[in-house]
Amino acid sequence: MNTLGVSKRMAGIPPSGIRRVFEQARALEAEGRRIVHLEIGRPDFDTPAHIKEAAMAALQEGKVHYTSNWGILPLREAVSKSLEKELGATYDPEGEIIITAGAAEGVFNTIMALVDPGDEVLVPDPGWVNYPVATSMAHGRPIPYALKAEMDFQIDLEEFQSLLSPKTKLVVLVTPHNPTGGMLAKDILEAISVLAKEYGFYIMTDEIYHKMTYDGHQHVSIASLPGMKERTIIINGFSKAYAMTGWRVGYVAAPKSLAATINKVHQHNTTCAASFAQYGALAALTGPQDCVANMVREFDRRRLLLWEGLNAIPGLRCPRPRGAFYAFVDVRGCGLAAEQFASRLLAEAGVAVVPGDVFGQAGAGFVRISYASSYEEIEEALERIKLFVQSLGGTT
Ligand SMILES: Cc1ncc(COP(=O)(O)O)c(C=O)c1O
Description:
The protein is of the alpha/beta class and 396 residues long. The chain folds into two domains: 8-46 and 290-388, Aspartate Aminotransferase, domain 1; 65-286, Aspartate Aminotransferase, domain 2 (3-Layer(aba) Sandwich), CATH 3.40.640.10. Helices cover 41% and strands 14% of the residues. The protein contains 13 helices and twelve strands. The protein has helices at residues 8-11, 17-30, 49-60, 73-87, 102-114, 130-137, 157-162, 186-199, 256-269, 275-286, 290-311, 338-349, 375-391, and strands at 36-37, 97-100, 120-125, 141-146, 168-174, 202-206, 232-237, 250-253, 326-330, 351-352, 354-355, 366-370. A seven-stranded mixed sheet has the order 2-8-7-6-5-3-4, sandwiched between helices. A three-stranded antiparallel sheet has the order 9-12-11. The radius of gyration is 21 Å and the shape is globular. The model has no long low-confidence stretch (mean pLDDT 95). Residues 41, 102-104, 128, 174, 178, 206, 208, 237, 239, 245, 250 line the site of pyridoxal-5'-phosphate. Pyridoxal-5'-phosphate binds at residues 41, 102-104, 128, 174, 178, 206, 208, 237, 239, 245, 250.
């Protein structure tokens, strides 16, 4: 007899906590409340005009059919050049670069291609939930490693090493990081590269925020360290740096030995990224880069406003973000659990933020605040957060 209903594989996987906050915020807006949205990781900028024009030209020229599963060759060549320039790593556009429907698809494909049932995958905690979810979907075991505020959100190497086992197949690194705004230091990456060789695991490094760094912090990719290309899969994309979240274009760069299988998942999953969107992404990489510099400068201005403003509120503590566009704020001094803090802040003050436990156990006591919204909205949110925290009475 058939058993009807959804798969057991998916039944245990919770829906996105970020979306839950977003839906609650939307429901309040539908009642006529004004809500400041600081929960979503989406730049508020429009995609630069030359990128849109390139996609429109592609449509007009009839570039409307399936592309190669790997993606259009000129885009793979442009990605290869940018990796060489930015990381000093050489990737063959023929067989080492796959254009995907966003970095999210690249993450999913990589995990499906590498993880067998029972394999262990070390994932950052707090971290973007797609890594443990995709691991569970592949019947692997996600093993969280903590990123602690008191260590500037670096990896505690001793603790990290204690989590490694012969079953460790893959380690996920994310730098700059969502949700902490931290960046992994070169010496930490070097130490992990030594462990990768000693224990024999692969690294998947998600570098989608690599162009968004502040205070002179330099992005370092573990793929660029000696002997690491062969065991590293780079995930990247266009969503954040070029304000193209809706375009759904990303890429995977991996050694030939892995890329063919990752591409096989992609082939059976999405076939290819949208043809005209790939031409837009090509213009993004090969066109003028001042649009990126301008956006990053504005993010930096907002970052400092938020960081200073939050630290001026007794009860809150905000470590200084180094990259991406998130602040990970310690709210323990307010005497509320993060979930309560976030839901009351939304209900009472109309500011939407994400409770840190959505990103893993180590996020308990923190909330993620995105500064991808306008400067004025952040000013307004700060005022509202200040009044809300004051209304809680004594801070601890
Ligand atoms: C670390 C990280 N990787 C990947 C993504 C998704 O990127 P894309 O829009 O290219 O799928 C996000 C989106 O929030 C993210 O934070």
